[in-house]
From TrEMBL:
Locations listed in the record: Cytoplasm
Organism: Sulfurospirillum barnesii (strain ATCC 700032 / DSM 10660 / SES-3)
Boundaries of every Tr-type G domain copy: 381-550
Cited Pfam families: EF-G_D2, GTP_EFTU, GTP_EFTU_D2, IF-2, IF2_N
Binding-site positions, GTP: 390-397, 436-440, 490-493
Protein name: Translation initiation factor IF-2
């Protein structure tokens, strides 16, 4: 059975919950708090009681006329009963006696509310059951879908409504219900005759619709917004007629309505301004089935927005959103639907949904590959692409440096490799391309990308240090990429070098050396002395031979972006490794959202070249945007095609990004609300290159716990600009973090004037450490307890003015005046307070040390006993750690 809360009733009646509770208690209802619920019947009785003062517990004196009248009604022919109007004018077939008597009955009841029974089935029964047992609890079940209206209408208004009704004779059968008393609606016929009649009335479906309309007229209120279907049973509507009644002044004057306007209906249209519980499922299902018949199968792209889906379904977008909402997910019309939601929607709407790959429209890589497969291939051997990975300081840069015979490591800030670079070396007349990925943990994500573009991974392990976390990570990445791994056991020049330990540790990770029966090459090297380097290069070439790396240099180019940045005077710059084909100056290329005509190509030494062959690294100038690292670049025939691809991709990514930011599930929503309590550090990150930016973003996102987190307001490549400062000043406490970028004079000034802090770094560790420190500063300090001392109570003195004083001996540490103490009895803490007085003999002291006797007064505590222990302690605030 439906329940209604006291608060709801109070709200409806414009009264305080407390008053309603009082009335409810008066009525004998079990109600304690405003949140208590009562069933709808009690709710109605309660409202009636509150409004009329008439307790439903005290049986209403029923006029003898009433029963007479009802009996008469029973005798009346069915049709006349059904159409029996209250007002004589309305239906000529009505029995005047009944009407008159009804009004007499009403007159005898001081009820200021009237109940209108709109349902035919109730109508008949009710008419007859007036004389029946009104308090029969079984009667209650008859009423479903109540509409309780608190508002009393002035007599004038009601009269007017009555007049209006008269003009709608077709509704006559319901009219008779209008002034029916509340009790009469609740009562049910107890004799079988009445029930029979009721059944007959039920068979008149045509009546139902008219009921709803008639009610509209009767109340003269706007009900257009909320249509509740007649099959929506189990509905409780407590509308606010203050809102709903939009009666013009003129009309108001004319209106004469019966003062009792409480209506109890089973099925009705009604204003849903108040409380409502509406079982809508039935209606929706019906609608769906109908529409599903219209469209039984649709084809949609993998990425589809809500409104697009609605269009395909030929449904209003609101309906789709509503459906999603009922599934617990909030979508806006522009949001992309995820696979699960599409499946559920397809199921709900009963359509077959086939997804077609929409991305193919701008999948230039696929088009390139298909073209290659179709055409004749002039395959030639290409240079292997090698990625060096390994734990920090195990010698990646030194190794590559030695190989290239150039001192790269010496020039780097802090000795850490900041950027991904690609370099080519020659060995035995063949080229080998190296991609250098940095060893810092923050670059993990970028490394994983690096592993994908490479043919072979070299994992550098320092022979004196063995396998470390990043060694494991490197192995995992290489394994995931499915590329062969060569182990360079470095620092073999060191005395502490232990290559066997390295072998054993790696064997545990599934990387077993060939000389141990495995399939992995372990090459002992020294980046310092150059020992084993030639062996390493030869091993690489042997491995490359096994891979049979080939490409067709006669084709148009396909390359992978290794690194990209925005350079002053050069614009977007991308380092790419050619996978297939040849890249030439003047080529029209597209790489993700970037496109353009190749203005210049620079080799790994920074020298301008005209072309780059498969396997070679090259720096590309002339792109419209900074392409993302890991993006595939291809050349296309015309600028238009390139532009089109890039535009579609950009739009696609933009929409996806938008979708991500707006699509929130209800669960997420509540999480977000919970997160409102979170303290966040808003930051704006600016970095010189994409790789560093990604790495910083990744690391900062990890700096969080349940209480605090870093909120990346914006992140971009390039120098710190005035608009960055403006953005930072717009959000409180936002700082700007610059990596390898510096603010210029005006930006600095603007930051100073708007109180925005700019922090710049050259070393990624420093940036992360600083942010970690700031974030931990945001955390609530941790309160740590420090024990000071303990004393045993030997005697208890009652001292005038001071109360009970514990005569103690300090057994440990010190007892100090004013510090916090605990009283411990039989090992259990029985009191916590502070030392109010501390005496040595007669003197007040601040501190008493171990082994000394003292008198301790405890603030607010007199129940001290011999044998108790007093433990003194202090609370120390400590900075929270992540
Ligand atoms: N003795 C000895 N020292 C080496 C060898 N290789 C590298 N080192 C030293 O080890 C330290 C770290 O070398 P890097 O090449 O910077 O190591 P990395 O792995 O590139 O470090 P990150 O770029 O910071 O990840 C430097 O001081 C090198 O001089 C080697 O074979 N023998």
């Amino acid at each position: 059975m439906d329940k209604v809360r006291i608060t709801e009733i109070a709200k409806e009646l414009g009264m305080k919950s407390k008053d309603i509770i009082e009335k409810a208690i008066d009525m004998g209802l079990d109600v304690k708090a405003p949140s208590s619920s009562i069933n709808t019947e009690d709710a109605e009785k309660l409202m009636n009681y509150v409004l009329t003062g008439e307790s439903p517990n005290t049986p209403k004196p029923i006029s003898p006329l009433k029963s007479v009248e009802v009996k008469k009604a029973e005798v009346v022919e069915k049709p006349s009963i059904v159409e029996e109007p209250k007002v004589e004018k309305i239906t000529p077939t009505k029995t005047k006696t009944l009407k008159e008597k009804e009004s007499e009955v009403l007159n005898t009841e001081p009820l200021s509310l009237s109940v209108e029974q709109k349902d035919d089935e109730m109508l008949q029964g009710d008419a007859e059951e007036i004389s029946e047992d009104k308090n029969d609890p079984t009667n209650v079940r008859k009423r479903r879908g109540l509409v309780i209206v608190k508002k009393k209408r002035p007599e004038k208004e009601e009269q007017l409504i009555e007049e209006k009704k008269e003009t709608h004779l077709s509704y006559g059968s319901q009219e008779q219900e209008k002034s029916r008393s509340f009790d009469s609606i609740f009562s049910t016929p107890s004799n079988s005759d009445l029930q029979k009649k009721k059944k007959k009335v039920k068979k008149l479906p045509a009546e139902k619709k008219t009921n709803a309309e008639k009610l509209d007229i009767a109340l003269n209120i706007e009900m257009t917004n909320t249509h509740i279907d007649s099959d929506e049973e189990d509905m409780i509507v407590l509308p606010d007629l203050n809102e709903g009644l939009k009666v013009t002044e003129e009309v108001k004057k004319k209106k004469q309505i019966d003062p009792s306007q409480i209506r109890t209906t089973k099925k009705t249209n009604f204003v849903m301004q108040g409380i409502q519980r509406v079982g809508r499922k039935k209606r929706r299902r019906t609608v769906m089935t109908q529409e599903a018949e219209a469209i039984s199968a649709i084809e949609i792209p993998e990425e589809i927005r809500v409104y697009e889906f609605a269009e395909k379904m030929n449904k209003p977008v609101g309906e789709v959103i509503k459906e999603l909402f009922s599934l617990g997910v909030m979508f806006t019309k522009n949001d992309f639907l995820d696979k699960d939601s599409i499946e559920i929607l397809a199921d709900t709407f009963g359509v077959n949904v086939t997804t077609v790959n929409d991305q193919e429209a701008f999948d230039y890589v696929k088009a390139y590959d298909e073209e290659g497969e179709a055409g004749e291939q002039n395959l030639v051997e290409r240079a292997p692409v090698i990625t060096i990975m390994g734990h920090v300081d195990h010698g990646k840069t030194s190794l590559l440096d030695y190989i290239r015979s150039a001192k790269v490591a010496a020039g780097e800030a802090g000795g850490i490799t900041q950027h991904v670079g690609a370099y080519m070396v020659e060995k035995n007349g063949r080229n080998i391309t190296f991609i250098d990925t940095p060893g810092h943990e923050a670059f993990t994500e970028m490394r994983s990308r690096g592993a994908k573009v490479t043919d072979i991974v070299i994992v550098v392990v320092a022979a004196d240090d063995g396998v470390k976390p990043q060694t494991k990570e490197a192995v995992e990445h290489a394994k995931a990429a499915g590329v062969p791994i060569i182990i360079a056991v470095n620092k073999m020049d060191k005395e502490s070098a232990n290559p066997d330990l390295v072998k054993a540790q790696l064997a545990e990770l599934g990387i077993t050396p060939i000389d141990w029966g495995g399939e992995h090459e372990f090459v002992p090297v020294s980046a310092k002395t150059g020992m084993g380097i030639e062996d390493l290069l030869e091993t690489i070439l042997l491995q490359a031979d096994l891979l049979e790396l080939q490409a067709d240099p006669s084709r148009e180019v396909k390359a992978t972006v290794i690194e990209s940045s925005l350079e002053k005077g050069r614009g977007p710059v991308a380092t790419v490794v050619i996978e297939d084909g040849t890249m030439r100056v003047g080529d029209i290329v597209v790489a993700g959202i970037a496109f353009g005509k190749v203005k210049a190509l620079l080799n790994d030494r920074g020298l301008a070249v005209k072309e780059a062959k498969p396997g070679e690294p090259v720096v590309v100038l002339g792109l419209s945007e900074v392409p993302g690292a890991g993006e595939t670049l291809i050349s296309v025939k015309t600028d238009k095609i390139a532009r089109e691809y890039a535009k579609k991709k950009a739009e696609y990514l933009r929409q996806k990004e938008l979708s991500k930011s707006t699509k929130v599930s209800l669960d997420e929503l509540s999480d977000m609300i919970a997160e409102g309590a979170l303290k966040t550090l808003p930051v704006i990150i600016k970095a010189d290159v994409q790789g560093s930016l990604e790495a910083i973003k990744g690391s900062l996102k990890k700096i969080r716990n349940a209480e605090t987190k870093v909120n990346i307001v914006s992140a971009g490549i390039g120098g710190i600009t005035e608009s960055d400062v403006a953005l930072a000043s717009a959000s409180s406490d936002c700082i700007i973090l610059g990596f390898h970028v510096r603010p210029t004079g005006t930006v600095k000034e603007r930051a100073k004037s708007s109180g925005v802090e700019i922090k710049t770094y050259n070393i990624i560790y420093d940036l992360i450490d600083d942010v970690t420190n700031i974030v931990t500063g945001l955390m609530a300090p941790v309160i740590r307890e420090e024990n000071i001392g303990q004393a045993m109570v030997r005697e208890v003195f009652a001292v005038p003015k001071l109360g009970h004083i514990a005569g103690c001996i300090v057994t440990d540490g010190t007892i100090n005046r004013g510090v916090k103490i605990r009283v411990i009895r039989d090992g259990v803490i029985i009191y916590e307070g502070s030392v109010s007085s501390l005496k040595r003999f007669k003197d007040d002291v601040k501190e008493v040390g171990k082994g000394y006797e003292c008198g301790v007064g405890i603030e607010g505590y007199t129940d001290i006993k011999v044998g108790d222990y007093i433990e003194s302690f202090k609370e120390v605030e400590e900075k929270a750690k992540l």
